[in-house]
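TICKET: design request
STATUS: open
ATTACHED STRUCTURE:
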């Protein structure tokens, strides 16, 4: 589906002068899709295709990826918010869907950008207690060593094992076998990468910066009680426990939230070729008709 899709490329300049590139398709109310870690705008093309019949969809490459400029000095979530704000001002969009770290950016931005009317969050990795950070720190040290050594496949496996998001058929494979399989995938991808796409090899190191966002937003759950936007909280029944806890806590804190769990799906459902359609159904219902009651 995504291979035949027609989209246009646009850019906008963020507050610090960084060029933010994004893909645009469809027609209707504006909706921005914010990807998560080790991903880029290409990761959302199937989801965007389904949504483009009813929305004008804007899919940016976040900093350090593809069409967008580098992370720059003093990278932080405020830079990401400024990037999003630049896109919203140019496009006039009022809706946002964020996956994982993209969801962190979306909900944080809603505290500062009043034009955001509705946000849909798929499993933002909000660290609710120090044990979550301690666990992440352990595998991130290994990840950084592997990146320094150019061990791309092993670094990728370290992250998905640490986050407990290894695809079900591969869940019981040992690290070395997963590394072998992903190294082969990385090599094939480097040969076949399409125009405007980013290779898996280039995306893997960006997880360092997404982890910075998790650190920066830890213990921030109470801040989100001030969110005035309508919020859709999405997640999968097969997702890691700490992500489900984040959604539970957000559901309790937010003034205007609806919670939906997809049975049998996991953390990467919005970017997998056979599952974004299910996410799109709930997303469209929320954006087109849902009005939640203030708690």
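STATUS: resolved
RESOLUTION: sequence designed for all positions
ATTACHED SEQUENCE:
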């Amino acid at each position: 589906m995504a291979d035949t899709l027609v989209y246009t490329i646009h850019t906008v300049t963020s507050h610090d002068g960084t060029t933010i590139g994004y893909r645009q398709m469809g027609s209707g109310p504006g909706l921005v899709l914010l990807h998560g870690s080790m991903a880029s705008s290409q990761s959302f093309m199937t989801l965007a295709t389904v949504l483009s019949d009813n929305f004008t969809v804007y899919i940016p490459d976040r900093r350090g990826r593809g069409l967008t400029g580098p992370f720059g000095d003093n990278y932080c979530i405020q830079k990401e918010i400024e990037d999003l704000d630049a896109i919203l001002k140019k496009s006039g969009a009022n809706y946002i869907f964020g996956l994982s770290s993209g969801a962190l950016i979306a909900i944080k931005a809603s505290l500062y950008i009043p034009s955001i009317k509705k946000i849909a969050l798929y499993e933002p990795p909000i660290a609710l207690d120090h044990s979550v950070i301690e666990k992440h720190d352990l595998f991130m040290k290994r990840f950084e060593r592997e990146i320094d050594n150019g061990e791309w496949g092993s670094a990728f496996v370290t992250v998905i094992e640490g986050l407990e998001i290894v695809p079900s058929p591969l869940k019981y494979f040992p690290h070395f076998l997963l590394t072998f399989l992903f190294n082969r995938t990385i090599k094939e991808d480097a040969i076949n990468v399409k125009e405007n796409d980013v290779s898996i090899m280039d995306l893997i190191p960006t997880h360092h910066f997404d982890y910075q966002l998790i650190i920066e937003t830890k213990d921030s759950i109470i801040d989100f009680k001030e969110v005035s936007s309508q919020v859709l909280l999405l997640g999968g029944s097969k997702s890691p426990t700490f992500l489900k806890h984040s959604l539970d806590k957000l559901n309790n804190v937010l003034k205007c939230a609806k919670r939906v769990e997809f049975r049998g799906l996991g953390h990467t459902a919005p970017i997998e070729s056979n599952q974004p359609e299910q996410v799109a159904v709930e997303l469209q219902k929320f954006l087109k008709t849902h009005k939640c009651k203030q708690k």
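CLOSING REMARK: Residues 227 and 242 are 22 Å apart (CA to CA). The chain has a mean pLDDT of 93.
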